[in-house]
């Protein structure tokens, strides 16, 4: 596959690994923010290939994992409202809320349909004019423009039965919250690649400056990650704190201006609840007033009970990089991908799932 | 969830492109990438092209990595 397999060439990986071993002198702890990066790191055994000076820790960059139970409970309550069709990416189905998952709601009669794209959700809305079709707006800056585009399409077509439950989250405020907490010592950040395709490099510059931390934007192939680590090592050794792009084929410094324009047209920043991080100001996206008629929360009467958290689950600490999945008493015992207790085990990009699938003895 | 892959744009019609993903023909939206042309590789996320892949930058990155690998080979 063009532009994929070239970035998996073993001899080039070896070159980067030996460069990292030669140059890394200072002990450093790097966080890969993005769950997609976590998967690449585990799948290709990158942690074991790095010198003892370097430690990698996974961050909260998995939208499903950081969705708080208050929001999951809203989703499930929404699915139980008569004449509502829920359209969602498949990742959301198995995530347990306080009392049930969407999959369980579906089994007990809710109309929940998995879609590949918001364009599919619009099609379902067109085909079911007498039903309220709600798209679950989960995801980071990568996904939010596609949801904004669907709202513009629905408006243009005069559709009156398409709604979005806006639960999008923004990455830079979450990284700031982690750095502000001081719970985790970090010497470098691998910044999310496809989020940065949209937002560009500029939003990371103030993070690098304010916290004096090197930031490298990476792609998702093993060579991308190794190149990003090598760039972070070079900055650490020179005591620099800059933003660099190790994914130049995908990310431009200014991001994608058209996607940013569409996102800004439809959404405005607002507070959001993050699992593990709590409420963070301006870390979410809500619909601007002129698009409020598409807001599922305003249009439909969602009634929820107070949220409950699963006993003993360490997802919150794991998402902040404070605990490892191996620290969790439930990991691999009562919590497995088949019967997940916490969202980090449900999502294929969750840290617990990566540890479980690719070997818990590798990490730490 | 931010999974996105590079795919070749085969044809374009009305803000949509025909592409092939895993051997299956699909239509993707070009709403976010109005600059897309036939022959471009789009980075596709949930049915939308979110950017056009910069082929010159891809070649330049590989050239740089080949240089790094060559240096490692000389020293070891």
- Helical stretch tally of chain B: 1
Question: Approximately how much helix is present in the residues of chain A?
Answer: 25-40%
User: Globular, elongated, flat, extended or rod-shaped: what is the shape of chain B?
Assistant: elongated
Number of helices of chain A: 17
How is the CATH topology of chain B named? SH3 type barrels
How would you describe the oligomerization state of the chains in this entry? heterodimer
Q: Mind telling me which CATH architecture of chain B this is? A: Roll
Report the sheet-strand fraction of chain A: 15-25%
What's the arrangement of strands in the largest beta sheet of chain B?
A: 1-5-6
The description of the largest β-sheet of chain A is: 5 strands, parallel
Walk me through the structure:
The complex is a heterodimer of chains A (364) and B (76). Chain A has 364 residues and is an alpha/beta fold. Chain A has two domains: 1-312, Rossmann fold (3-Layer(aba) Sandwich); 315-358, no CATH class. Chain A is built from 17 helices and eleven strands. Chain A has helices spanning 10-23, 35-43, 46-49, 63-66, 69-79, 102-107, 118-127, 144-156, 171-181, 193-199, 202-210, 222-237, 257-266, 296-299, 315-319, 343-346, 351-358; strands spanning 28-34, 54-61, 84-88, 111-114, 132-137, 162-166, 188-191, 215-217, 243-245, 267-274, 278-287. In chain A, helix 12 (222-237) links the parallel strand 8 (215-217) and strand 9. In chain A, helix 1 runs parallel beside helix 12. Chain B has 76 residues and is an alpha+beta fold. Chain B has a single domain (5-75), classed as SH3 type barrels (Roll). Chain B contains one helix and six strands. In chain B, the strands form two sheets. A three-stranded antiparallel sheet of chain B has the order 1-5-6, with no helix packed on it. A three-stranded antiparallel sheet of chain B has the order 2-3-4, with no helix packed on it. The chains are: A alpha/beta (364), B alpha+beta (76). Chains A and B meet through helix 1, helix 7, helix 8, helix 10 and helix 12 of A and strand 1, strand 5, strand 6 and helix 1 of B.
């Amino acid at each position: 596959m063009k532009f994929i397999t070239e970035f998996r060439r073993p001899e080039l990986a070896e070159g980067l690994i030996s460069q990292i071993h030669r140059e890394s002198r200072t002990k450093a702890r790097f966080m890969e923010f993005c769950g997609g990066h976590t998967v690449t790191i585990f799948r290709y055994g990158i942690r074991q290939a790095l010198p003892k000076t370097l430690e990698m820790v996974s961050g909260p960059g998995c939208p499903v994992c950081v969705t708080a139970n208050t929001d999951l409970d809203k989703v499930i309550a929404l699915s139980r409202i008569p004449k509502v069709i829920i359209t969602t990416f498949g990742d959301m189905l198995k995530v347990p809320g306080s009392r049930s998952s969407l999959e369980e709601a579906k089994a007990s009669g809710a109309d929940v349909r998995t879609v590949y794209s918001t364009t599919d959700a619009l099609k379902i809305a067109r085909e079911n004019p007498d039903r309220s079709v709600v798209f679950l707006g989960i995801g980071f800056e990568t996904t939010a423009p596609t949801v904004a585009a669907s709202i513009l399409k629905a408006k243009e077509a005069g559709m009156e039965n398409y709604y979005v439950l806006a639960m999008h989250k923004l990455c830079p405020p979450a990284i700031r919250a982690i750095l502000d907490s001081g719970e985790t010592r970090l010497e470098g950040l691998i910044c999310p690649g496809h989020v940065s395709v949209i937002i560009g490099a500029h939003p990371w510059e103030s993070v690098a400056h304010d916290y004096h931390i090197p930031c490298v934007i990476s792609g998702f192939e093993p060579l991308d990650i190794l190149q990003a680590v090598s760039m972070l090592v070079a900055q650490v050794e020179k005591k620099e704190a800059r933003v660099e792009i190790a994914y130049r084929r995908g990310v431009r410094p200014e991001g994608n201006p058209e996607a940013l324009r569409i996102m800004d047209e439809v959404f405005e920043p607002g507070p959001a609840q993050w699992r593990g991080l709590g409420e963070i100001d301006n870390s979410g996206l809500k619909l601007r007033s002129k698009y409020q008629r598409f807001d599922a929360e305003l249009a439909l009467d969602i009634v929820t009970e107070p949220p409950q958290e699963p006993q003993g689950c360490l997802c919150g600490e794991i998402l902040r990089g404070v605990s490892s999945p191996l620290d969790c008493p439930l990991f691999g015992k009562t919590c497995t991908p088949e019967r997940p207790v916490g969202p980090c085990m449900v999502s294929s990009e969750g840290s617990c799932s990566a540890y479980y699938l690719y070997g818990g003895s590798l990490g730490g | 969830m931010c999974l996105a892959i590079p795919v070749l744009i085969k044809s374009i019609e009305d803000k949509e492109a025909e592409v092939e993903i895993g051997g299956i023909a699909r239509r993707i939206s070009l709403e976010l990438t109005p600059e897309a042309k036939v022959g471009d590789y789009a980075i596709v996320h949930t049915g939308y092209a979110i950017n056009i892949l910069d082929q010159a930058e891809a070649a330049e990155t590989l050239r740089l990595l080949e240089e790094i690998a060559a240096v490692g080979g000389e020293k070891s």
